[in-house]
Amino acid sequence: MIRPEFVLTPLEMKQADAATIAAGTPGIDLMSRAGRAVADVAERVTARGGRILVVAGPGNNGGDGFVAAWLLAERGYGVSLGLLGNRDRLTGDAAKASRHWTGDIGAAEDLPFHEADLIIDALFGTGLTRNLEGAARLAVERMNMSGQPILAVDLPSGIDGETGSVWGVAVRAARTVTFAARKPCHLLMPGRAHCGPVEVADIGISPETLAATGADLWANQPALWLGALPRPGLASHKYNRGHTLVASGGATRTGAARLAARAALRIGSGLVTVASPPEALGVNAAHLTAVMLRGCDGPEGLHTVLKDERFNALVLGPALGVHANTRAMVAVAVQARRSLVLDADALTSFEGLASELHQAFRHSPTVLTPHSGEFNRLFSGHSDILDPPSKIERVRRAAFYTGAVVVLKGADTVIASPDGRAAINENGTPYLATAGSGDTLSGVIAGLMAQGVHAFEAASAGVWIHAAAGSSFGPGLIAEDLADLLPGTLRELLK
Ligand SMILES: NC(=O)C1=CN([C@@H]2O[C@H](COP(=O)(O)OP(=O)(O)OC[C@H]3O[C@@H](n4cnc5c(N)ncnc54)[C@H](OP(=O)(O)O)[C@@H]3O)[C@@H](O)[C@H]2O)[C@H](O)CC1
Ligand SMILES: [K+]
């Protein structure tokens, strides 16, 4: 079985490094393997004898660069090396690595970047903690301006390893080689856009050592949740594949609920019902076939409908309206302890009232699916949730606070569970940024929960499947297409 891919923070990577060193592998061996991995990639992408410039920084990232430089010189490339700062200021493994380099050492910012066939960026890795200024900034700007391909060592210099944000300016790499595991910056925006394709080199740090750091962040890939996906057996019938209820908005706001409902049906919920206000029954009836319809007037109506225990998953929010009634419907749903997906208006209705959601969902499986605008509105005034520089930390804190799994949507959707687990999604497409796409996602997640999938797995799988379906269509995608792309995506996944 394929293991889910851990994503390690710089701190966890340091712990894994230290544990490997404590278990008997000298640090210089790790650095030598890292530098060799960089040299191997450089060799693969540069014709023999080509001109390679190595830009080395004052820490261990620079140390990796020194190793790569002398290996590539040995392999017949024309290598020049520039260092930020003074050679005699190098310490530890980086100082050891630099002793192998017998060529000249120029200033990092003064290398003839335009003449390079390849630039190796070994200026800063995970140790960068402040804005780039002076010579460091100049070196990065000149690398970028050269127009020549840049191979980043560990991560593009100027990117923060933990958050993926830019420290003033950052290298735009053509490719990146990282070590042992990807870091958050390789998946989170804007870092991801600076990396190019990322290769992970094995430098002898075991998967067990990585896991022992207590890392609980993963790349959102099928290995994380495939085993939890429902596969109907011979004995399945529609009544044991769950029944999803989707609340509709008023007469002129019904489409969003139907998008969610169709997606829930396509993802395998045995039955799906749209709960419609009386004045919208006609318009809903005119557009529904396999999805069922039921009258449901506000919170009291929902309370009555939910007396039927068979409705085991519920979507509230799409086009439901921003008002107290929506908040009351959420309260009814929470009381009824059903699996719940809250999106759009169900979140915005709590703007400035997030304290009403404090630990509200700890007793029933709930997924909140805000985009960044909804997230910021919902938690306005909660600086403990909104202020951390790491998106992963913000989403985790929202999940701790509410007791729900939180999906913060975007190009780098993050999914976090109140138990601390988190995943970063990376198979999205900009074409998913279209009206109704989020409604479809809430239906997919609810439909999975209706079939008994736990909230974190349902949210993670839902996000990935929704994105894969959208990516399979590409240009011209509209939300109506998404539900009907789900069967193809599921067929691939489950074969
Ligand atoms: N298992 C692994 O992943 C391995 C990774 N290796 C490589 O090591 C680096 C991390 O090395 P580290 O020494 O911790 O950090 P850096 O090289 O990224 O940078 C630290 C040095 O940079 C100076 N610094 C920091 N910010 C700035 C700035 N804005 N301007 C100028 N200088 C800056 C910092 O100086 P201080 O004054 O802050 O102390 C340091 O001198 C990792 O990314 C991998 O490439 C190892 O090879 C082993 C295996
Ligand atoms: K780098």
Automatic annotation (TrEMBL):
- What's its EC? 4.2.1.136, 5.1.99.6
Record flagged with keyword Isomerase: yes
Q: Could you tell me which InterPro entries the record lists for this protein?
A: Carbohydrate_kinase_pred_CS (IPR017953), CARKD (IPR000631), Nnr (IPR030677), Ribokinase-like (IPR029056), YjeF_N_dom (IPR004443), YjeF_N_dom_sf (IPR036652)
In alphabetical order, the GO MF annotations are: ADP-dependent NAD(P)H-hydrate dehydratase activity; ATP binding; metal ion binding; NAD(P)HX epimerase activity
UniProt xrefs under Pfam families: Carb_kinase, YjeF_N
Q: Which GO terms describe its biological process?
A: metabolite repair; nicotinamide nucleotide metabolic process
Residue ranges constituting the YjeF C-terminal domain according to the UniProt record:
221-493
Entry function: Catalyzes the dehydration of the S-form of NAD(P)HX at the expense of ADP, which is converted to AMP. Together with NAD(P)HX epimerase, which catalyzes the epimerization of the S- and R-forms, the enzyme allows the repair of both epimers of NAD(P)HX, a damaged form of NAD(P)H that is a result of enzymatic or heat-dependent hydration. Catalyzes the epimerization of the S- and R-forms of NAD(P)HX, a damaged form of NAD(P)H that is a result of enzymatic or heat-dependent hydration. This is a prerequisite for the S-specific NAD(P)H-hydrate dehydratase to allow the repair of both epimers of NAD(P)HX.
* Protein name per its UniProtKB record: Bifunctional NAD(P)H-hydrate repair enzyme
Source organism (scientific name): Microvirga alba
Gene for this protein? nnrD
